[in-house]
Every structure is written in structure tokens, then in C-alpha cells.
Automatic annotation (TrEMBL):
Residues 36-90 form the HTH crp-type domain. It comes from Oceanomicrobium pacificus. One of its GO terms (molecular function) is DNA binding. The lineage of its organism: Bacteria, Pseudomonadati, Pseudomonadota, Alphaproteobacteria, Rhodobacterales. It holds the Pfam family HTH_Crp_2. Signal peptide: none annotated. InterPro entries: HTH_CRP (IPR012318), WH-like_DNA-bd_sf (IPR036388), WH_DNA-bd_sf (IPR036390). It comes from the Bacteria. This is HTH crp-type domain-containing protein.
Length: 231
């Protein structure tokens, strides 16, 4: 996956891809998240300076754009900052509005699970290791991408489930499930280790039911799955 700056001759397509990733994630989420994503997208499309890679806007103007009161603006901006989707580049002081940066790298990581909904071509384009613009721009930082290789069968419930999950959706498997390590069973609970706390939380929230379905097919004694973090 690549956190790409939307500049150069491919800028237009990159912008559309970023917006697509945000939209498909928002529509797959709860109503609160949908509204928050839509609000951020409005700021990006209406006020974001792509050349300077920054967003300069006051809270009163945000309130007008969002049709909300200033208190709601403060609360939503706090959520976006905590989520890593928005960071303060320069605080608003002495009558000047604040300047923000959009955390496109974090947005890409958070929306990755919904990319397959758009299509395999979209996933391949977003996951490409580099672009011509990225080579020319040393400030563009690529993310490592795990290859979606076929899991090795070792007789365990997880290896059997992993093979089924890979066959079901190799793109999703390569992005989120392949890095999981079998930590064994604790009674009726299968425990899997994810490489980070964020990864563990995301998989537990979005894919635990799917994983459990395949695990229980191989071993009916498994009644639950827990995704733990290695860090």
C-alpha cells in the first residue's frame, strides 16, 4: 500500500482513489462514522490545498459547511485527530485560522478492509509498490505489502481455516489475515496473534465472525476466536 501525494500527471486519479477509499469505508460503517467521513470529505473537496498538502479553515466556516454548531465542530475535529485522520500543522492564533494535515496514510490503512468492495483493479492500483510520481518524490513513503501466498497445511484448525479464507478472498486474506499467527486454543477459544494492536482490533471487529465460521467447520469445539496483539 502506498501513501501517495496526489501531485504530478496522475494526480487526478489519485484524488479520486482517495475519495473512493473514504466513501466505501464510510458506507460500510455505522451512521456516526458515515457522517464523520462525509464531513471530512467535504473539507477535503472544498478547502484542501493539494499543492501545499494542507487544509486551512476556521471552525466557524466548518460549522457553516457542516450545518452544525461550533461545539459539534470541536467534538468532530477531536475525533478525527484522535483517529489520526487529521493533525494540526499550525494552531489558529491571533485571528488566524488553524492549518491541518490530512493523515492519508492512516486513512489508507483504516479503509483497506473495504477496498475489495470496489474491485480487484482498485485494490491492485492502491497496493502497487510504487508509481512514477513516487519515484520522483522521495517524501512518498511506501507501506509493506504481504504477499497472499497459499497457507501451508499443518493439520491445525487455523491452517485449515486460513486455506478456506484464502480461497474465499485472497486479496483480503493477504492484507489482514495472512499475518496472523496461531497461538493455540484455550478451551473453546482459538487465539491468534496479530502484528500490532491496531491490526488485532481491526481484525477482531471486522473479520472475527468470518474466521470463526471457518474454524468451527474444521473443529466444532471452537466457539470463539480472540485476536491478540504482539506488541
Amino acid at each position: 500500500m502506498l501513501a501517495r501525494q496526489p501531485i504530478g500527471r496522475h494526480a487526478a486519479s489519485v484524488k479520486y482513489d482517495l475519495m473512493t477509499a473514504m466513501m466505501v469505508h464510510g458506507l460500510a460503517s455505522d451512521k456516526i462514522t458515515q457522517r464523520r467521513v462525509m464531513r471530512l470529505m467535504l473539507l477535503v473537496t472544498s478547502r484542501y490545498n493539494w499543492q501545499k498538502a494542507e487544509l486551512s479553515i476556521g471552525q466557524q466556516e466548518i460549522a457553516r459547511l457542516w450545518s452544525v454548531d461550533p461545539r459539534t465542530v470541536k467534538r468532530e475535529l477531536a475525533h478525527l485527530r484522535a483517529q489520526g485522520w487529521l493533525t494540526v500543522k499550525r494552531a489558529g492564533v491571533r485571528g488566524r485560522v488553524a492549518t491541518y494535515e490530512i493523515g492519508f496514510d492512516r486513512i489508507m490503512a483504516d479503509t483497506r478492509g473495504e477496498w475489495p468492495r470496489v474491485g480487484a483493479d482498485f485494490v491492485a492500483r492502491m497496493d502497487q509498490p510504487k508509481t512514477e510520481d513516487a519515484v520522483a518524490n522521495p517524501n512518498v513513503v511506501p507501506f509493506a505489502r504481504a504477499p497472499a501466498s497459499v497457507p501451508t497445511a499443518d493439520g491445525s484448525a487455523w491452517s485449515a481455516a486460513a486455506a478456506a479464507l484464502h480461497a474465499e478472498d485472497p486479496v483480503l486474506f493477504g492484507a489482514w489475515l495472512q499475518p496472523l499467527i496461531d497461538a493455540g486454543q484455550g478451551g473453546p477459544i482459538c487465539q491468534l496473534i496479530a502484528p500490532s494492536r491496531f491490526h488485532a482490533t481491526y481484525v477482531q471487529t471486522h473479520f472475527a465472525d468470518r474466521i470463526l465460521r471457518h474454524l468451527s467447520r474444521h473443529d466444532p469445539s471452537i466457539r470463539d476466536v480472540r485476536i491478540l496483539a504482539a506488541d
